[in-house]
Amino acid sequence: MSARVRLDDIAKLAGVSPATVSRVINGTGQVRESTAESVRLAMDTLGYDRPSALSRTSLAPVGLILPELTNPVFANYAHHLQLELAHRGHPAFICSQAPGGMTENQLIDSLLSAGCAGLIFVCGRHADSQANLEQYQELLDKEIPFVLINGPRSELAAPSVCVNYDAGMQTAIYHLKQLGHRKIALVCGRDNAIPAKLQRDAYQTYMEKNFGADSLTVIPTFYTFAGGQSAAQEVIRAGATAVIAGSDLQALGVISGATSLGAKVPQDLSVIGFDDSALMTHTTPPLTTLRQPVVTIANAAVQVLSEEISANKLQTCELRFAPDLIQRGSTTPPLN
Length: 336
What we know:
The protein contains eleven helices and twelve strands. It is of the alpha/beta class.
Protein backbone atom coordinates (compact mmCIF):
# COMPACT_ATOMS: atom_id res chain seq x y z
CA MET A 1 0.00 0.00 0.00
CA SER A 2 1.33 3.40 -0.97
CA ALA A 3 2.30 5.59 2.00
CA ARG A 4 0.25 8.38 0.46
CA VAL A 5 -2.98 6.39 0.20
CA ARG A 6 -4.37 4.56 3.20
CA LEU A 7 -6.87 1.74 3.26
CA ASP A 8 -9.26 4.06 5.11
CA ASP A 9 -8.95 6.68 2.36
CA ILE A 10 -10.04 4.21 -0.31
CA ALA A 11 -12.84 2.87 1.87
CA LYS A 12 -14.19 6.35 2.60
CA LEU A 13 -14.22 7.38 -1.06
CA ALA A 14 -15.78 4.10 -2.19
CA GLY A 15 -18.39 4.17 0.57
CA VAL A 16 -17.43 0.76 1.92
CA SER A 17 -15.61 -0.65 4.93
CA PRO A 18 -11.81 -1.04 5.07
CA ALA A 19 -12.40 -4.80 5.30
CA THR A 20 -14.19 -4.74 1.96
CA VAL A 21 -11.30 -2.84 0.38
CA SER A 22 -8.92 -5.46 1.76
CA ARG A 23 -10.98 -8.28 0.27
CA VAL A 24 -10.98 -6.58 -3.14
CA ILE A 25 -7.21 -5.96 -3.05
CA ASN A 26 -6.37 -9.48 -1.91
CA GLY A 27 -9.03 -11.24 -3.97
CA THR A 28 -10.45 -12.99 -0.92
CA GLY A 29 -14.06 -13.45 0.12
CA GLN A 30 -17.15 -12.56 -1.85
CA VAL A 31 -17.65 -8.98 -3.03
CA ARG A 32 -20.33 -7.85 -5.45
CA GLU A 33 -18.95 -6.69 -8.80
CA SER A 34 -20.56 -3.24 -8.42
CA THR A 35 -18.87 -2.83 -5.02
CA ALA A 36 -15.51 -4.02 -6.38
CA GLU A 37 -15.87 -1.53 -9.22
CA SER A 38 -16.43 1.28 -6.71
CA VAL A 39 -13.25 0.26 -4.89
CA ARG A 40 -11.24 0.14 -8.14
CA LEU A 41 -12.60 3.57 -9.09
CA ALA A 42 -11.58 4.96 -5.67
CA MET A 43 -8.08 3.54 -6.10
CA ASP A 44 -7.73 5.18 -9.51
CA THR A 45 -9.11 8.49 -8.24
CA LEU A 46 -6.65 8.57 -5.33
CA GLY A 47 -3.72 7.57 -7.53
CA TYR A 48 -3.21 4.17 -5.95
CA ASP A 49 -1.54 1.64 -8.24
CA ARG A 50 -3.75 -1.41 -8.41
CA PRO A 51 -2.17 -4.81 -7.72
CA SER A 52 -1.66 -6.78 -10.92
CA ALA A 53 -4.30 -9.24 -9.76
CA LEU A 54 -6.90 -6.45 -10.05
CA SER A 55 -6.04 -5.60 -13.64
CA ARG A 56 -8.71 -6.70 -16.06
CA THR A 57 -7.90 -9.03 -18.92
CA SER A 58 -7.82 -6.69 -21.89
CA LEU A 59 -10.07 -7.62 -24.80
CA ALA A 60 -9.76 -6.30 -28.33
CA PRO A 61 -10.02 -2.50 -28.59
CA VAL A 62 -13.07 -0.64 -29.88
CA GLY A 63 -12.83 2.45 -32.07
CA LEU A 64 -14.85 5.59 -31.33
CA ILE A 65 -15.33 8.18 -34.08
CA LEU A 66 -16.80 11.57 -33.13
CA PRO A 67 -17.21 14.83 -35.08
CA GLU A 68 -15.10 16.88 -32.67
CA LEU A 69 -14.04 17.02 -29.04
CA THR A 70 -14.26 20.79 -28.56
CA ASN A 71 -18.07 20.55 -28.29
CA PRO A 72 -18.77 19.56 -24.66
CA VAL A 73 -21.50 17.06 -25.53
CA PHE A 74 -19.18 15.03 -27.79
CA ALA A 75 -16.45 15.05 -25.17
CA ASN A 76 -19.07 13.77 -22.73
CA TYR A 77 -19.99 10.95 -25.11
CA ALA A 78 -16.31 10.03 -25.54
CA HIS A 79 -15.85 9.92 -21.75
CA HIS A 80 -18.83 7.70 -20.98
CA LEU A 81 -18.31 5.41 -23.96
CA GLN A 82 -14.69 4.71 -23.04
CA LEU A 83 -15.67 4.28 -19.38
CA GLU A 84 -18.32 1.67 -20.20
CA LEU A 85 -15.98 -0.08 -22.64
CA ALA A 86 -13.32 -0.21 -19.91
CA HIS A 87 -15.81 -1.81 -17.53
CA ARG A 88 -16.27 -4.56 -20.13
CA GLY A 89 -12.53 -4.95 -20.72
CA HIS A 90 -12.26 -3.15 -24.07
CA PRO A 91 -9.69 -0.36 -24.51
CA ALA A 92 -11.10 2.59 -26.47
CA PHE A 93 -9.31 4.21 -29.40
CA ILE A 94 -10.86 7.69 -29.73
CA CYS A 95 -10.73 9.63 -33.02
CA SER A 96 -12.33 12.91 -34.08
CA GLN A 97 -13.00 14.32 -37.53
CA ALA A 98 -11.38 17.71 -37.11
CA PRO A 99 -11.79 19.99 -40.16
CA GLY A 100 -8.83 19.47 -42.45
CA GLY A 101 -7.90 16.24 -40.70
CA MET A 102 -8.49 12.60 -41.60
CA THR A 103 -11.77 11.60 -43.25
CA GLU A 104 -14.13 9.12 -41.67
CA ASN A 105 -13.06 6.48 -44.21
CA GLN A 106 -9.41 7.01 -43.29
CA LEU A 107 -10.21 6.76 -39.59
CA ILE A 108 -12.13 3.51 -40.15
CA ASP A 109 -9.17 2.00 -42.02
CA SER A 110 -6.72 3.10 -39.30
CA LEU A 111 -8.84 1.74 -36.46
CA LEU A 112 -9.40 -1.61 -38.15
CA SER A 113 -5.69 -1.85 -38.97
CA ALA A 114 -5.00 -1.26 -35.26
CA GLY A 115 -7.04 -4.36 -34.43
CA CYS A 116 -10.36 -2.82 -33.34
CA ALA A 117 -13.06 -5.47 -33.01
CA GLY A 118 -15.88 -2.97 -33.53
CA LEU A 119 -16.70 0.70 -34.05
CA ILE A 120 -19.06 3.27 -32.56
CA PHE A 121 -19.97 6.35 -34.61
CA VAL A 122 -21.32 9.43 -32.81
CA CYS A 123 -23.05 11.87 -35.19
CA GLY A 124 -20.79 10.70 -38.00
CA ARG A 125 -21.39 10.81 -41.73
CA HIS A 126 -24.46 8.67 -41.10
CA ALA A 127 -26.10 11.74 -39.50
CA ASP A 128 -25.86 13.63 -42.82
CA SER A 129 -28.79 12.83 -45.11
CA GLN A 130 -26.68 13.72 -48.16
CA ALA A 131 -23.71 11.54 -47.23
CA ASN A 132 -22.65 8.40 -49.07
CA LEU A 133 -23.26 5.34 -46.88
CA GLU A 134 -20.96 2.99 -48.77
CA GLN A 135 -18.39 2.78 -45.96
CA TYR A 136 -21.04 1.53 -43.55
CA GLN A 137 -22.38 -1.02 -46.02
CA GLU A 138 -18.85 -2.27 -46.57
CA LEU A 139 -18.52 -2.83 -42.82
CA LEU A 140 -21.76 -4.82 -42.85
CA ASP A 141 -20.61 -6.85 -45.85
CA LYS A 142 -17.39 -7.71 -43.98
CA GLU A 143 -19.44 -8.49 -40.84
CA ILE A 144 -17.58 -5.91 -38.78
CA PRO A 145 -19.83 -4.85 -35.89
CA PHE A 146 -20.64 -1.18 -35.37
CA VAL A 147 -23.25 1.03 -33.72
CA LEU A 148 -24.62 4.40 -34.88
CA ILE A 149 -25.41 7.09 -32.29
CA ASN A 150 -27.77 10.01 -33.04
CA GLY A 151 -28.45 9.55 -36.72
CA PRO A 152 -30.76 6.59 -37.42
CA ARG A 153 -30.60 5.25 -40.99
CA SER A 154 -33.26 2.80 -42.08
CA GLU A 155 -31.14 2.02 -45.15
CA LEU A 156 -28.57 0.23 -42.98
CA ALA A 157 -29.17 -3.07 -41.19
CA ALA A 158 -27.14 -1.91 -38.20
CA PRO A 159 -27.87 -1.02 -34.56
CA SER A 160 -28.86 2.58 -33.92
CA VAL A 161 -29.10 4.32 -30.54
CA CYS A 162 -30.34 7.89 -30.39
CA VAL A 163 -32.21 10.60 -28.56
CA ASN A 164 -35.98 10.57 -28.86
CA TYR A 165 -36.17 14.03 -30.41
CA ASP A 166 -39.94 13.80 -30.77
CA ALA A 167 -40.46 13.31 -27.04
CA GLY A 168 -37.98 16.08 -26.23
CA MET A 169 -39.67 18.62 -28.49
CA GLN A 170 -43.09 17.75 -27.14
CA THR A 171 -41.83 18.32 -23.58
CA ALA A 172 -40.20 21.66 -24.45
CA ILE A 173 -43.27 23.03 -26.23
CA TYR A 174 -45.56 21.88 -23.44
CA HIS A 175 -43.34 23.63 -20.88
CA LEU A 176 -43.44 26.90 -22.80
CA LYS A 177 -47.17 26.62 -23.41
CA GLN A 178 -47.77 26.15 -19.68
CA LEU A 179 -45.80 29.36 -19.08
CA GLY A 180 -48.11 31.20 -21.49
CA HIS A 181 -45.97 31.36 -24.65
CA ARG A 182 -47.60 31.10 -28.07
CA LYS A 183 -44.95 32.51 -30.42
CA ILE A 184 -42.18 29.92 -30.16
CA ALA A 185 -39.31 29.80 -32.64
CA LEU A 186 -36.98 26.91 -33.41
CA VAL A 187 -33.27 27.42 -34.08
CA CYS A 188 -31.90 24.13 -35.35
CA GLY A 189 -29.19 22.58 -37.49
CA ARG A 190 -29.00 22.78 -41.24
CA ASP A 191 -31.38 20.84 -43.48
CA ASN A 192 -29.03 17.93 -44.22
CA ALA A 193 -28.45 17.09 -40.53
CA ILE A 194 -30.71 14.20 -39.54
CA PRO A 195 -30.98 15.26 -35.85
CA ALA A 196 -32.07 18.72 -37.07
CA LYS A 197 -34.70 17.18 -39.34
CA LEU A 198 -36.05 15.08 -36.49
CA GLN A 199 -36.22 18.17 -34.27
CA ARG A 200 -37.83 20.23 -37.03
CA ASP A 201 -40.46 17.57 -37.84
CA ALA A 202 -41.36 17.21 -34.16
CA TYR A 203 -41.53 21.00 -33.72
CA GLN A 204 -43.91 21.31 -36.68
CA THR A 205 -46.12 18.50 -35.39
CA TYR A 206 -46.57 19.86 -31.87
CA MET A 207 -46.72 23.54 -32.80
CA GLU A 208 -49.47 22.88 -35.34
CA LYS A 209 -51.28 20.68 -32.86
CA ASN A 210 -51.18 23.33 -30.13
CA PHE A 211 -51.19 26.64 -32.00
CA GLY A 212 -52.14 26.04 -35.66
CA ALA A 213 -50.28 25.90 -38.98
CA ASP A 214 -49.40 29.62 -38.98
CA SER A 215 -47.37 29.41 -35.78
CA LEU A 216 -44.09 28.12 -37.23
CA THR A 217 -40.76 29.99 -37.21
CA VAL A 218 -37.84 27.72 -38.13
CA ILE A 219 -34.31 29.10 -38.46
CA PRO A 220 -31.69 26.59 -39.66
CA THR A 221 -28.07 27.41 -38.90
CA PHE A 222 -24.86 25.78 -37.67
CA TYR A 223 -24.73 23.99 -34.31
CA THR A 224 -22.40 26.67 -32.94
CA PHE A 225 -22.41 29.74 -30.72
CA ALA A 226 -21.97 31.94 -33.80
CA GLY A 227 -24.86 30.16 -35.51
CA GLY A 228 -27.14 30.99 -32.60
CA GLN A 229 -25.95 34.60 -32.54
CA SER A 230 -26.75 35.05 -36.22
CA ALA A 231 -30.22 33.51 -35.74
CA ALA A 232 -31.15 35.87 -32.88
CA GLN A 233 -32.03 38.75 -35.17
CA GLU A 234 -34.53 36.63 -37.08
CA VAL A 235 -36.00 35.34 -33.81
CA ILE A 236 -36.58 38.91 -32.60
CA ARG A 237 -37.90 40.02 -36.00
CA ALA A 238 -40.46 37.18 -35.96
CA GLY A 239 -41.85 38.46 -32.65
CA ALA A 240 -41.13 35.24 -30.81
CA THR A 241 -41.35 35.31 -27.03
CA ALA A 242 -39.55 31.96 -26.71
CA VAL A 243 -37.05 29.92 -28.67
CA ILE A 244 -35.99 26.29 -28.61
CA ALA A 245 -32.41 25.71 -29.79
CA GLY A 246 -30.98 22.53 -31.24
CA SER A 247 -27.94 22.65 -28.95
CA ASP A 248 -26.74 24.45 -25.85
CA LEU A 249 -24.10 26.30 -27.88
CA GLN A 250 -26.81 27.60 -30.20
CA ALA A 251 -28.92 28.61 -27.19
CA LEU A 252 -26.05 30.58 -25.66
CA GLY A 253 -25.49 32.24 -29.03
CA VAL A 254 -29.15 33.22 -29.22
CA ILE A 255 -28.96 34.73 -25.72
CA SER A 256 -25.85 36.70 -26.68
CA GLY A 257 -27.36 37.92 -29.95
CA ALA A 258 -30.71 38.82 -28.41
CA THR A 259 -29.00 40.70 -25.57
CA SER A 260 -26.94 42.71 -28.06
CA LEU A 261 -30.22 43.70 -29.76
CA GLY A 262 -31.61 45.02 -26.48
CA ALA A 263 -33.77 42.04 -25.50
CA LYS A 264 -33.65 40.67 -21.96
CA VAL A 265 -33.52 36.93 -21.29
CA PRO A 266 -35.82 35.58 -19.98
CA GLN A 267 -38.07 38.63 -19.54
CA ASP A 268 -38.39 39.37 -23.27
CA LEU A 269 -37.27 36.03 -24.65
CA SER A 270 -37.30 32.60 -22.99
CA VAL A 271 -34.65 30.20 -24.26
CA ILE A 272 -34.41 26.40 -24.09
CA GLY A 273 -31.22 24.61 -25.11
CA PHE A 274 -30.49 21.00 -25.91
CA ASP A 275 -27.74 18.76 -24.43
CA ASP A 276 -27.27 20.07 -20.85
CA SER A 277 -23.55 20.43 -21.42
CA ALA A 278 -21.15 21.14 -18.58
CA LEU A 279 -21.36 24.60 -16.98
CA MET A 280 -24.95 25.32 -18.13
CA THR A 281 -25.81 25.94 -14.48
CA HIS A 282 -23.25 28.78 -14.45
CA THR A 283 -24.46 30.76 -17.48
CA THR A 284 -26.35 34.04 -17.13
CA PRO A 285 -29.14 33.18 -16.75
CA PRO A 286 -28.70 29.47 -15.97
CA LEU A 287 -29.92 27.66 -19.07
CA THR A 288 -33.15 25.68 -19.18
CA THR A 289 -32.33 22.76 -21.47
CA LEU A 290 -33.23 19.28 -22.61
CA ARG A 291 -30.67 16.94 -21.07
CA GLN A 292 -29.40 14.48 -23.63
CA PRO A 293 -29.31 11.03 -21.95
CA VAL A 294 -25.62 10.55 -22.73
CA VAL A 295 -24.88 7.92 -20.09
CA THR A 296 -27.90 5.80 -21.01
CA ILE A 297 -27.16 6.03 -24.74
CA ALA A 298 -23.47 5.27 -24.23
CA ASN A 299 -24.19 2.25 -22.05
CA ALA A 300 -26.79 0.91 -24.49
CA ALA A 301 -24.48 1.36 -27.47
CA VAL A 302 -21.61 -0.46 -25.73
CA GLN A 303 -23.91 -3.26 -24.58
CA VAL A 304 -25.18 -3.87 -28.12
CA LEU A 305 -21.68 -3.75 -29.60
CA SER A 306 -20.28 -6.02 -26.87
CA GLU A 307 -23.01 -8.57 -27.57
CA GLU A 308 -22.22 -8.45 -31.29
CA ILE A 309 -18.50 -8.95 -30.67
CA SER A 310 -18.88 -11.78 -28.15
CA ALA A 311 -21.53 -13.63 -30.20
CA ASN A 312 -19.79 -12.91 -33.50
CA LYS A 313 -23.20 -12.02 -34.90
CA LEU A 314 -24.50 -8.66 -36.14
CA GLN A 315 -27.71 -7.17 -34.74
CA THR A 316 -30.35 -4.85 -36.15
CA CYS A 317 -32.18 -2.66 -33.66
CA GLU A 318 -33.17 0.95 -33.02
CA LEU A 319 -33.20 2.26 -29.46
CA ARG A 320 -34.46 5.73 -28.56
CA PHE A 321 -34.20 7.46 -25.19
CA ALA A 322 -36.13 10.58 -24.19
CA PRO A 323 -34.29 13.64 -22.88
CA ASP A 324 -35.27 15.26 -19.58
CA LEU A 325 -36.26 18.91 -19.33
CA ILE A 326 -33.98 20.66 -16.83
CA GLN A 327 -35.73 23.85 -15.74
CA ARG A 328 -33.46 26.74 -14.79
CA GLY A 329 -33.55 30.50 -15.14
CA SER A 330 -33.79 31.10 -18.90
CA THR A 331 -37.54 30.44 -19.19
CA THR A 332 -40.32 32.45 -17.60
CA PRO A 333 -43.88 33.59 -18.49
CA PRO A 334 -43.97 36.23 -21.26
CA LEU A 335 -44.44 39.87 -20.30
CA ASN A 336 -47.54 40.27 -22.46
